[in-house]
Amino acid sequence: MLLFGLDLDYVAAIVLFCVGLYMLVAKSNLLKKLLGLNVMETAVFAFIVTAGMIEGGDPPIMVQGTSAPFASPIPHAMVLTGIVVAVSVTAVALALIVQIHAHYGTIEVDELKELP
Amino acid sequence: MRPWSLLLVALVALPLIVGVAGLPRHDAPDAPIHTHVGTRYLERGVAETGFKNMVTAVLLNYRGFDTFVEVVVIFTALAAVLALPRGETADPDHAPGQRAPADDATGAPEPGDDAVATAAVPATSGPRDGSDAGRAHEVVPVSPVVLFVVRILAPFLSMFALAMLFRGHITPGGGFQAAAVFGAVFIALGLVFGLGRVARLMPTGLQPWLQAAGPLAFVFVAWFGWRLTGFFLGFPIDDHTTQEGMGFVLEVAIGVGGGVILARLFLSMEA
Question: Which residue in A43, A54, A42 sits closest to B20, CA to CA?
Fold first, then answer.
């Protein structure tokens, strides 16, 4: 589906990416920043998986009932890697946020800056 | 702060839009993504790897090193999270009355907490005994609806995870997906029945081995492949049964290890 000559699926991924980026830079709550980062990651995954699709394609599983054309398997595998990295980053960041909260009692960047 | 953020977002969005405009249509059959190495995998993947699911073939066979390091990454993340100092409050003035002195998730709760937890949970809420239902700073009454739904869903979710693990070779699914569902089951049960209770589901002695299951299985299979083919993580190209067996070991290890790691990550957040 096209929108001003642009692929609407790609544009959706970009919009999602920008929403995440805005959350990342505009919010002062660390948790919201992390959510923004996750939204950005999701946008990238959606973009890559979308790029691997093919018109009228089947999932790339060679069993009875599927036939060519097949969706490209590489983006799927790449995105799996990306998701694992995203989970790891999220986990470490969350643990750090928990620590920051335990030490300073706040996770607002504004308030953290003012601490001595 | 806000206008600058919007400007930054616009500055990032513009080149992205311009770049996307130059890409081929996303489902076009003649896009480069469908004319390069992906096509070769699709044409010869079954003959070369023995896997019917090409995503699994790419993941474990063609790009096995990538997956090897991937499981090491998530294991490292768990190690990093567990290595952080836990439950320290440097300056109590900054955190007035926020948290009771937190003990470990598996530790014995204090008597005072017992009373709070029991009061917060409806008496009709089934098997929850309140002994480890949470500490004073986080006691939230569990809605009976949530309790009921989680109890009903948990076995089906576990079955779904197992199905994805063991039927992943002919249906969409696989080790990582199963791990995500396993982890979700643990987290849902932990939220409803108390984290300490769920933590006890995993035997302490076995836990480090389960957490390291992914990397360990990869090392073992890589060594096995090296003995068979002379290449690290090599798969014997003619022997489909052996290839599928090696893939099965890896998938199970990824599924179990990943699920345990996800659950442990969640438990560790509650320091």
Answer: A43
Cβ within 8 Å, pair A103-B58: no
CB < 8 Å to B42, chain A: 60, 68, 70, 72-73
CB atoms within 10 A of CB B252: 16
**Is residue A17 pLDDT above 90, yes or no?**
yes
B-chain CB neighbours of A72 within 8 Å are: 33-34, 38, 42
Give the distance from CA A41 to its chain's centroid: 2
For residue A114, count CB atoms less than 10 angstroms from its CB and return exposed for 0-12, middle for 13-18, buried for 19 or more: exposed
Specify the 3-state DSSP secondary structure of B58.
Answer: helix
CA distance A78 to chain B (A): 8
Q: What dotted CATH number matches A2-114?
A: 1.10.287.3510
- ipTM of the modeled complex: 0.87
Contact A21 B70 (CB under 8 A): no
Q: Tell me if B16 and A83 make a contact (CB, 8 A cut-off).
A: no
Range B190-193 contact pairs with CB under 8 angstroms and sequence separation of 24 or more: B190/B263, B190/B266, B190/B267, B191/B150, B192/B128, B192/B142, B192/B146, B192/B147, B192/B150, B192/B151, B193/B127, B193/B128, B193/B133
CB contact A109 to B (< 8 Å): no
Q: Span B164-186, mean pLDDT?
A: 87
Higher-confidence position of B107 and A75: A75
Strand partners, B53: A61
Question: What are the extents of the domains in chain A?
Answer: 2-114
Which chain B residues have a beta carbon less than 8 Å from that of A87? 74, 77, 262
Decide if A90 contacts A34 (C-beta within 8 A): yes
